[in-house]
What we know:
Blueprint lengths: L2 H37 L8 H15 L3 H8 L1 H17 L6 H28 L6 H13 L1 H12 L8 H21 L16 H7 L5 H19 L2 H30 L9 H23 L9 H21 L22 H29 L4 H22 L5 H32 L8
Helix pairs in contact: 1-4, 1-5, 1-6, 1-7, 1-8, 1-11, 2-5, 2-15, 3-4, 3-5, 3-10, 4-5, 4-8, 5-15, 6-12, 6-14, 7-12, 10-15, 11-12, 11-14, 11-15, 11-16, 12-14, 13-14, 13-16
Amino acid sequence: MSPEGKKLFNIIILGVSFMFIFTAFQSCGNIAQTVITNLNNTDFHGSGYTSMSIIYGVLSASNLISPSLVAIVGPQLSMVVSGVFYSLYIAVFIQPATWAFYTASVLIGIAAAVLWTAQGNCLTENSDENTIGRNSGIFWALLQFSLIFGNLYIYFAWQGKTHISESDRRTVFIALTVISLVGTVLFFLIRRQEDTKAPGDDDSTNEILGESSSARNKMMRAVAAFKKSITLSFTKEMLLLSVTTAYTGLVLTFFSGVYGTCIGAVNRFGSEEKSLIGLSGIFIGVGEILGGGIFGLLSKKNGSGRNPVVMLGILVHFIAFYLIFFNMPNDAPIAPMEGTDQIAYMIPSKEVAMLCSFLLGLGDSCFNTQLLSILGFLYSEDSAPAFAIFKFVQSICAAVAYFYSNYFVLQWQLLIMVLVGFFGTITFFTVEWGAAAALAARGSDYSSI
C-alpha cells in the first residue's frame, strides 16, 4: 500500500472506531436522563445532567496532562485504553449504583481527554495541508454515523413505551457496551507512520532524543508536550478560536442531552414521546453526516475557504433555536418524571421537533469540521497540544452547560447559545482571514481548506 493509501486507511479506521464507541456513548448520553428519571424511585439517586457535568469538567482539567500521557504511551495505545473506560461507563447502566455511576463519570472524563488528544494527533499525522480538510470531513462523517445506529434501535425498541422497564434498560446497555468494545478493538488496525513525531516534539527535540524509548526520554517528551500546551493556550489565534470552541461545547450539551430530554418530557407527543428521543438522535446524525460529507469530502470545490461554511452553520442554528423556542415548552429541560403539559407559542409539533434536530446536527458539523481543519493547518507541528486545548475549552463549556441545565428553563439556555455563537463566529472569521493571508504569502492555493 502506498504511503498516501496507508494514511487514508488510518483515517477511515479512526473514523469507524470512533463511530462504534460513540454509537454507544452518544446513545447513552441521549437517553441517560430519561432512564435515570425512571430509576429515581429506587435506591439509585443520580442525575444524568450532573454526570455529564462531571465528565466534561474532569475532561477539561485532564486536557492539561493528556498531551503528556499521549507522548509517553503513544496515540494508538492511548485510544485503546480510553475506549475500555468508555465501555465501563456504559456498563454501569446495566446494574446502576449511585457511587459507581459518579466514579465512572470521573474516570471517563480522564479517558475522554486522552482519547480526543490522541485522535487529533492521529488525524494530523495522517494529513497535510492539502488533505486536512478532506480527512476532517471523512472522520467527522464516519463518527456521526454513531448517531444513526444507536438511536435507530432506541426508536424501535421504545416505541409506544411511556415507562422504561428494568429489562428494557439492561437489554439496551448490554448491547451498547459490546458495541463500544468492538470500536476499541478496531484501534489496533491503525498502522503507525514511520516518520511520525511524538506529540510535543519539534525537530530539535528529535535530534536530541533520537530513537531512544527510555523512561527518561519519554518524560522529557511529556514535559515538552505540557509546556507546548501552555504556550499555545496564550497565542492570539488559539484565544480567538476558544470562543468558537466554547460555542461548540454549549451546543454539544444541548443536542446530546438537553434536547432529547425536552422531547421526552412533552406529554402532548403521547405514547411516542420516548421513542421520539431516538428519532431525534437519528435526524441529528443525518445532519452531521450531510455536513461532514459536503464540507469535508467536497472541500476541494470550495474556493472561498472556511468562513462561508461557518456562516451557514450559525444561520442554521439560529433558525433551529427560533423554532425550538416556539415549539417546546419552557419547562421541558427540567420537567419531572410525569413530563409537562405546558405549551410554548404553538402546539408542540413532532415534525418541527425533528426538523430542529436535523438543523442542530447540520450546523454542528459546519463548526466542527472547520475547527478540525483550521487547527490541523495552523498547528500541524503541535497537533496534540493544540487539540488538547480545543477539547479543554469545549469540555469545560459543556460541563458548565450541563450544570446549568439542571436549573435553567429553555429560553435562557437558547439565549446563552445565541450570544456565544454570534461572537464565536466573528472570532473564527478573524483567524481564518489570518490563515488565508499566510497561505497567500506562501503562494499556496486557498481553495484547499
